[in-house]
Design a protein that fits this description.
Largest sheet: 4 strands, antiparallel
Shape: globular
Oligomer: single chain
Order of helices and strands: HHHHHHHEEEEHHEEEEH
Strand content: 5-15%
Number of domains: 2
Number of strands: 8
Distance between the termini: 38 Å
Length: about 350
């Protein structure tokens, strides 16, 4: 989840957790508590780019970290605001709600999160929300702005905070129902098209929850397709993408390659351009893949042994988003541009 949504959501929880009049102080504490797991960004100061990428949403996004940091915040807030009539148990409950809410929201994205570190290094991802879903993030951000300018004793503050939190979680609930529906359609298509599948994943295409991106793994290739819940027919047309994992022997000694493999959980392809090799993580989607299936992926890493080696994450994801492209995207979301529509 993006940082702005975490800040706004944390502030709204703070507003609702404490009595009227303490509002803006609670908003600041809520925003801070919701942001603290993302302190792992400083690991980029001493880790390699690949290691820093894996460290993000690692230990600081684990249940253990939340359990340890909650009492620290509690003691700090209690000391700063003395004298006050807020019990320590309420402070602790408040910070735990904020921290665990951060962990829940981040698990809804594709990036993956290490809930059980350091005991289990597997990363969980529910693939329910695009990292910047406008319909999810707009209500809490708008409510946060309104509350920040309102008087702290204004009687409407709690109503704004409640609506600002209720709407995105209703949206998340709706998205979960849509995901169940899409899941069934994908399974039917795999069976009907007699696709031999090792495993498959799906996630929303950018900014919404109607059009979904599907990746099916086979032994030597991936199949990629798009399906909107508004499509007239429940058919997914898949495009084949070779894995090229046989190139592993050419890049296996690259210092970042094994880290990238572990991070991608096997959802990657390799390709060669001259003497350069590229690593692409398929989980993060394509540029306009819903209408141009052969387009490149948005997560790319240049595997080279030169100082110019660098990560190209989301490079070009939003390039070309002109008015006509946006219009065609909305048509595809609502099934109107699908060739399957009668």
């Amino acid at each position: 989840m993006d940082s702005l949504t975490h800040i706004a959501t944390g502030a709204l929880v703070g507003e609702l957790f404490f009595e009227r009049g303490f509002g803006k102080k609670a908003m600041i504490w809520g925003a801070l508590a919701q942001s603290i797991p993302d302190i792992d960004f400083i690991s980029a100061l001493w880790l390699s780019p690949g290691e820093a990428m894996v460290a993000h949403r690692g230990f600081t996004h684990s249940f253990l970290f939340a359990l340890l940091i909650g009492p620290v915040f509690t003691l700090l807030a209690d000391k700063i605001h003395k004298p006050h009539n807020i019990r320590m148990q309420r402070w602790l409950l408040f910070f735990y709600v904020e921290l665990f809410l951060h962990l829940l929201l981040d698990a809804c994205n594709t990036y993956g999160i290490g809930w059980f570190l350091p005991f289990d290094h597997r990363r969980l991802a529910f693939n329910l929300l695009f990292v910047a879903d406008v319909l999810f993030m707009l209500p809490p951000i708008l409510a946060f702005v309104v509350l920040w300018v309102k008087n702290r004793y204004d009687l409407s503050r709690r109503r704004w905070a409640t609506v600002g939190l209720l709407l995105p979680f209703l949206y998340l609930g709706l998205t979960s129902l849509l995901a169940c529906s899409v899941y069934g359609v994908v399974e039917k298509n795999i069976a009907a098209q007699q696709i031999r599948s090792e495993r498959w994943i799906m996630s929303p295409a950018p900014f919404q929850n109607l059009l979904w991106y599907v990746v099916v793994e086979q032994q030597q290739k991936f199949l990629i397709g798009y399906y909107s819940v508004m499509d007239y027919q429940q058919r997914i047309d898949f495009h084949s993408v070779p894995k090229h994992h046989t190139l592993d022997t050419a890049v296996h000694d690259h210092p970042e390659y094994q880290t990238l493999k572990r991070f991608s959980d096997g959802w990657y392809t390799l390709r060669q351009e001259g003497k350069l090799f590229w690593f692409s993580d398929l989980r993060f989607g394509q540029r306009f893949g819903w209408e141009q299936p052969a387009n490149d992926f948005v997560f790319n890493w240049k595997l080279s042994h030169t100082p110019q080696n660098r990560l190209h994450v989301q490079q070009g994801r939003f390039a070309g988003w002109q008015a006509n492209q946006v219009h065609r995207y909305f048509l595809r979301i609502f099934g109107r541009s699908s060739s399957r529509r009668k």
